Amino acid sequence: MSPRKSEKPELSRLELFVMDRIWESGEASSAEIVDAVRTMRKLAPTTIRTVIANLKKKGYLEQVPSLERGFRFRPIVSRDAVAKRSLRDLFASMFQGSPRQAIAFMLREDELSQSDVAELRRMLDEKRPRGGKS
Description:
Blueprint lengths: L12 H13 L2 E2 H9 L6 H14 L2 E4 L7 E4 L3 H16 L4 H11 L4 H14 L7
Helix pairs in contact: 1-3, 2-3
């Protein structure tokens, strides 16, 4: 599946990990991002700053005007947009483009609690078309 013209390049696992820290904060200085990442992964600050620069180059982050000494960044692509594309790509490559096949696989493979099953039923009921047709 070739990427759509308007889509940004895919994120590596490390880039996605860094973006998760930025999405959580909403906006952060490079120093804050480095600190947040380093509390969870032992990476050199220069590595994290390189990842930030790559995310900016790929169009996932924008620099925010600031009076601080360092740069501030905020995401310009939402977590939901990245998740939607990642799931679409997963469905295409692993499940012949079928969300139904992916969900069936997950239901067979994962242990679900009764509350998980109840929540899934509620979500399916909300998705069911109105007017009697199923």
